[in-house]
Amino acid sequence: MAAAPPLRLRWRFVQPDRIDVSDDRAQARTPHAADALIEVRGLRTVLGGKVIFDGLELDIPRGRITAVMGPSGTGKTTLLRHITGQLRPDAGSIRIDGADVTALPRHALFALREKIGYLFQNSALLTDFSVFENVAFPLRQHLDLPEELVRNLVLTKLQAVGLRGAAELMPSELSGGMARRVALARAIVRDPTLILYDEPFVGLDPIALNQVLKLIRTLNDTLGITSILVAHEFAAVARVADLVYLIAGGKVVARGTPAELTRGDSAWTRQFFGGEADGPVPFQYPARDYAADLGFPAGAASSTPHTEPRP
Amino acid sequence: MSAVRPKPPSMIGDALAQVGACGLFLLQILAAVPRSLRHIRETVRQVWFTGAMSLVIIMTCGLFVGMVLGLQLYYVLSIFGGTAALGTVVSLSMYRELGPVVTALLFAGRAGTSITAEIGLMRATDQIAAMEMMAVDPIAYVAAPRFLAGVIAMPLLACVFNALGIFGAHLVGVSWLGLDNGTFWSNMTSSVDVWKDVVNGVWKSVAFGAVVALIAVFQGYTTAPTSEGVAYATTRTVVFSSIVVLALDFVMTAFLM
Ligand SMILES: Nc1ncnc2c1ncn2[C@@H]1O[C@H](COP(=O)(O)OP(=O)(O)O)[C@@H](O)[C@H]1O
Ligand SMILES: [Mg+2]
Q1: Overall domain count for chain B
Q2: Which of B5, B46, B47, B121 has its CA 20 to 30 A from that of B33?
Q3: ipTM tops the 0.90 cut
Q4: Is B180 in CB contact (< 8 Å) with chain A?
Q5: How far, in Å, from the CA of A75 to the mean position of ligand 1?
Q6: Each residue's pLDDT tens digit, A244-274
Q7: What domains, with CATH codes, occur in chain A?
């Protein structure tokens, strides 16, 4: 009984040092040629009276790394929660391989999630368990594997994120960046076909960042995993992403390869990737008049450019 | 704005909505019990945490309650010259009332609060969401084992409480105040009925265990994901458990009499 799953899993081991660096893949990586694994159509979401998405449309190509970028608070995490069925939108559809996630019953959703790896923005490690048991958790819950195999699988993934030596530590003994990498190991331990990374680079030092970037690229190249990457660091994103979506104001405002977006001349891309405070993306959360808030006559501070959101 | 909207109806409505949600949650837990048997080790772990770890407080309190009861009843009974009935009266009040009720109140304070705080913190730190994303049903993995643990641990704790209480009364009545040891025990054994007194008390404690564990798990599971939310939820667990246990005690006593 236990003989079949091990075989299936063994050949899918990730070997982080066997990275495919051949250049001919770059050609095949152009996103426009690939078919879409995920299709988001007419997505509309209102949270706490605030419109988060207003007719959002995007395609996530199969077997590619797609980055979703945007100012904080635009709803990138919310989008990932929609895609994984944790949160139902008010309108619109999200199809993963043809199945509409927004209409799936709970058991079908769970079956789908067994093939999805999800890296939470705040790591969300189980505080009761050691690092090893955290990574082993999905295996123990779903597969009846011999202990030796569980050990091999877990240690391989921990090695890939550089934390094999930390296997016996408890989550409270980890730094933020270490917890992030443990969470990453846990997200990939069952070799999912789709991985969603919510801000994986936060808290990583340059060495760890390099390793994680390599790992993301390797998973994608060797196993053909489809990846969605939410991040702010454009330099890091540009090194791995095949396609970048920039969302702001509830819509997609720019779409293209990293190279296309850096060359892009729309106000959105100039502001976001150039880091200019002035532009279509308001730096300020929607607020009342600045001067009035400080107790001066309204409009007295009108020379301050960012008190009102731009259209 | 709040002056315009009448407050009492919304408060009653909120309370009723809470009760309804709690009822639905109970159904979800009961439906998840067969699935949670897969995580039987988790249930055993919870029986250990909620049951075994509460033993010290239960035993200490049981001993003191029994000693106080021994003193008070000895005084009252001596007015009528009936101190020989001390063992009977103490054991009846322990088995029928004090054992189940006081154990449930202590259990709410000791185990209920920790269940609420733990689940609330798991909610606040996205651990519940992480389980859902790993296709593990948190109702079956987190809620049901803790609920079952409450149902299993409460009657056992109540029995320990009763035993220590009677031991305490014996200590005061026989060893200290000089009652006859044989009279103490023989009067007790001749007038305590296993089915009417002992088993009814056990039923009560099973019901109280279910109620306290349900309230604790529900409060933790539905808490606002902030430290303030967890603090409120923990308080509510103690308050609601105490009220419901005492009210349910009255109802059950009326029916079991
Ligand atoms: N449960 C909620 N209730 C109300 N508003 C929410 C909730 N969750 C998120 N929001 C709001 O939705 C917006 C998008 O949040 P999020 O998706 O976390 O942004 P980000 O793009 O930084 O990941 C934020 O403005 C936040 O205030
Ligand atoms: Mg986010």
Answers
A1: 1
A2: B121
A3: no
A4: no
A5: 6
A6: 999 988 889 888 898 888 877 677 777 776 6
A7: 36-115+192-303 (3.40.50.300)
